Amino acid sequence: MQLRRAAVLGGGPGGLYAARLLKLAYPACDVVVHEQGDPDTTFGFGVGLAAGTQRKLAAADPDTLRDLVAAGRRHDMTMRVGGRVARVRNDRLIGIARTELLAVLRQHAEKAGVRLEFGARRTADELDADIVLAADGVSSATRESGPFGGRIESGRGLYLWCGTDFALTDAVFAPVRTEHGVFVTHAYPYSGGRSTFLIETDEDTWRRAGFDSSTEATPVDASDEKSLRYLENVFAEQLRGRRLIGNRTRWLRFRTVRCDTWSAGRTVLLGDAAHTAHFSIGSGTKLAMEDAIGLVEALREEPDRAAAFARYETVRRPAVERLQELARRSRLWWESFPSRLHLPVERLMVAYMSRAGNVPLDRFAATSPDVVGAALEQFAGGPGPADPAAVTDWVLRHGTGRGGGNLVTIDEAPTDPWDGTGDAVVARARRAFDDGAEGFLFTGPPGRSALLTRLDLAERVRTEVGGPVVVEGPAALRDDLAAGLVSGRTDLVTLVNDPAGNPGRNS
Ligand SMILES: Cc1cc2nc3c(=O)[nH]c(=O)nc-3n(C[C@H](O)[C@H](O)[C@H](O)COP(=O)(O)OP(=O)(O)OC[C@H]3O[C@@H](n4cnc5c(N)ncnc54)[C@H](O)[C@@H]3O)c2cc1C
């Protein structure tokens, strides 16, 4: 389509990248970014950019990617529990300071000829343009005041985003048990002298530590110093005695944003304004920048605005919703993380990698043979196969069976095994156990989503009530069942033939 003037609301990663791509595609178009903040006072610490995202950015705009990679810091991932460490190599994962990311994107936007206006809060309606790209973030006023059907779901857990003034060698996931409960950090380096510390906890622990009152007492433009000082002690080992630095740091609940539609008239939403995905899959920046690529491609391909916006949504929505579903499972896993601290660190790493059903066990075995090898040995009491392709069958040989004795069948499938319906299943299982049940058989629909949820529910019952638990699933989903066994979600699995012809893990 033809474009003379385009306005971008919001100078975050989504808005800045869209502005540059738009200007490169339409050199004669006047492209203006309106950002309420000042370029030197952006908030936040580091964000991660994974290999897949880098490949997409390389195809869309190699110049920008080159500078982002140069400003970032590559790191591996480690999990540390009870003095033991499991390490996963990750050749292309980088952490980059949000300030650096935005500086690079601003520079490239200006180089392409985009005008940047800072320091005034604007509304989509007041901007004079053929199209308005609303990239105004998770609290988007455009979404809230427009006909987009926006909905927000808040997570149960609480998180706090802060940093420290030295660079960790690797990304680290470390839980620490305190007198108030468990706190977990996901920390990673993002520059020569800085690391992000993202810290999570559950509501009960948060209240017991008195953080409900410290949150309330912290003004919006300040940091919750009481929490930071407490957490400095909790994570003293990971921090090597250094301080935690806040930047408008306070406890928050993650908000998952969904919309019925992403466009109305001349206005189109992108990035966090349109959708969010829990930070534990590190995808917010990726989604915002990939939206920018998809939107500009659609504008180039279609003859008019309505067709372009429709194409953008048709192309992007399935990818976004798939990631939102992975993020939902990942969020539930992290929110229930303390219940898994009894697992040896290698099995915990397998549980982490398979938490959302996105990394098959055999693929993980191929890239991290030492971690998976140790986990298989812990699971079966003897060494597993050297060939990663043989891992799934080997695990299933050790963990397939119907269990003996008096098993109680559970066929409920709540979407969230940790919600009220999940609580009711656990209460019923506990009563059955007290009445002499010797274990539980989890059965239900053959679809993949239902099986993954069944494995989560089985894990909850196994941990909170006792086992053995047996999970039934279609033979086509053997990878998920094998990962469930090694991760301690179930004691045994039963394979059934799937008459509906379940297509397997890639479905
Ligand atoms: C704890 C945490 C950790 C995260 N970690 C990662 C990670 O590891 N990897 C990752 O990819 N993502 C991560 N994210 C997510 C990431 O920060 C966001 O998803 C990403 O910044 C979204 O980009 P955006 O451009 O859509 O919105 P934003 O970055 O939020 O930018 C929106 C911009 O719009 C401006 N604005 C808003 N309203 C107006 C207005 N009315 N007028 C003018 N300007 C306005 C704001 O000032 C802001 O600059 C994390 C998020 C959180 C909360």
From TrEMBL:
Residue intervals of the FAD-binding domain = 105-324
GO MF term list: FAD binding; oxidoreductase activity
- Which UniProt keyword terms apply here? NAD, Oxidoreductase
What superkingdom does the record give?
Bacteria
> Is Methyltransferase a UniProt keyword of this protein?
no
The protein's matches in InterPro entries, at most eight in alphabetical order, are given as: FAD-bd (IPR002938), FAD/NAD-bd_sf (IPR036188), PheA/TfdB_FAD_monoxygenase (IPR050631)
**Chain segments annotated as transmembrane:** none
Pfam family example for this protein? FAD_binding_3
What SUPFAM superfamilies has UniProt attached to this entry?
FAD/NAD(P)-binding domain
- Please report the name of this protein according to its UniProt entry: Oxidoreductase
What is the native source organism of this protein?
Amycolatopsis alkalitolerans
